[in-house]
Amino acid sequence: MLDWISGAIPTAVLLVLEIVLIVVALAVAPINRRPSSALAWIILIVVLPLVGLLLFALIGSSKLPRSRRDKQRTMNERIEARARTVEHVTDSHGAPSWLAPIARLNREMGAMPLIDGNTAELLPHFDEQLEALVEAIDSAERFLHVEFYVLALDDTTRPFFAALERAVARDVEVRVLIDHLGSFQYPGFRRAKKELTRIGAEWHLMLPVQPLRGRWQRPDLRNHRKLMVVDGRVAFVGSLNVIDPSYEKRGNRRRGLQWRDILARVHGPIVQEIEALFATDWFSETDRIPASTAMDAVADDDDPSTLLAQIAPSGPAFESENNLALFNSLIYAAQRRVSITSPYFVPDESLLSAIVTAARRGVAVELFVGEIGDQFFVFHAQHSYYQELLLAGVRIYEYAAPTILHAKHMSVDETVALVGSSNMDIRSFQLDLELMMLVSGRSFADDLRKVEDEYRSRSKELTLEAWQGRGPFHAFVDGIARLTSAVQ
């Protein structure tokens, strides 16, 4: 009898603990989380309690600490106080009627207005991108603001750092932000830090994970932005990281892998918005706000050759998923065509619905992705969406190996384009600080379409018949990867 009781007590305790875990999971996991994500967390906690609870404690919150969110609100208020509201979008620019409400949405979420008087140039190839950055650094007279997710010193990027040294020697104020864990894995990151210190540039890590120094937040919340501002007169935004296109890995070089990115060089008042975004990130890391120029652009400069542009920041410092709202709004607004380039395409339910709906209502939708990927689970999670897209009439183009297509952009109808750092995946929607630039202007949209035309010439179109013929193991892995992508 005593043996039965002694054996029953541990079983009862474990049963009670399991019930408590389930109740806690049901009560906590769904808070401010999509049903699919909440369900994935609940299943993980119930099936693997210790692992699930540990992971939830480490990465359960998708928001930055309150102090950092307070800094974002402070900067938003400063930006709003200094920027004039754009009340209309003039017909002289050929802007579609649906652009103004989307611009208002972006302003409500990210504080930045749609402003006129801009020019922009696309740089689609690495050599010209690096050359343009070096040339701009060499032209700096007052200040230089550099912010990259990955910044590494290697044989390829050495001219970039040499230009920074020349700028410091001219008494240019050089400020540099580098994402900590984004760059940490590359040998050139350590060399870059030493070099920045040697030349006398002021540099700081973004979102550092240094618990012994009191610096801690969810470790996979990252600053994924890529930007550079020179003297408040020219800026660069896009998908480019400052690192050799092979990402410094012997295996990549052996396979001939090269990352392909896009970079936009911009002039005009939009530079002030990019500068304000850098100031926000600098303030977040240093508690200091660098001096910057005022945003005093007007709604219409009466020059039809200039571009309307708006910076749309997003990430865990904001209360909403700004980039997701922008993507969805543009796709639902499209009347004739949508072209999407995203290396990591793992949409949530709302974005998938927007794309499928657009295709079914007759919009010509195309998606450019890579034939190969550099992240196993993301690559297979991405594959799990192809059949639904193909059935809806979306045309999928796989950019040929050994190039890794890393650019992130979208064009809508004839005049609207979007370029920046954000992928169309759950990580970019919830976990990464991102930057997208919305542009309205026929010349810029035409230039982006030329880039898309080049992608198409280097890609193979995926057919529904070919996709349905893939092996059952491939399909199984795709499904498992899709499930793991929901645990955010």
Describe the structure.
The protein is of the alpha/beta class and 488 residues long. The protein has helices spanning 2-28, 35-47, 49-59, 66-82, 99-110, 126-139, 158-169, 180-184, 187-199, 250-255, 270-286, 322-333, 349-360, 376-383, 386-392, 426-430, 442-457, 464-468, 472-485, and strands at residues 115-123, 143-148, 173-179, 202-206, 222-223, 226-230, 234-238, 258-260, 263-267, 307-314, 337-341, 345-346, 364-370, 395-399, 403-405, 409-412, 416-420, 424-425, 432-440, 459-462. It has 19 helices and 20 strands. The chain has a 16-stranded mixed β-sheet that branches. A two-stranded parallel sheet has the order 8-15. It starts with a helix and ends with a helix.
Secondary structure blueprint with pairings:
Blueprint: H1 2-28, H2 35-47, H3 49-59, H4 66-82, H5 99-110, E1 115-123, H6 126-139, E2 143-148, H7 158-169, E3 173-179, H8 180-184, H9 187-199, E4 202-206, E5 222-223, E6 226-230, E7 234-238, H10 250-255, E8 258-260, E9 263-267, H11 270-286, E10 307-314, H12 322-333, E11 337-341, E12 345-346, H13 349-360, E13 364-370, H14 376-383, H15 386-392, E14 395-399, E15 403-405, E16 409-412, E17 416-420, E18 424-425, H16 426-430, E19 432-440, H17 442-457, E20 459-462, H18 464-468, H19 472-485
Parallel strand pairs: 2-3, 3-4, 5-19, 8-15, 11-13, 12-18, 13-14
Antiparallel strand pairs: 1-9, 1-10, 2-6, 6-7, 7-9, 10-19, 11-16, 14-20, 16-17, 17-19
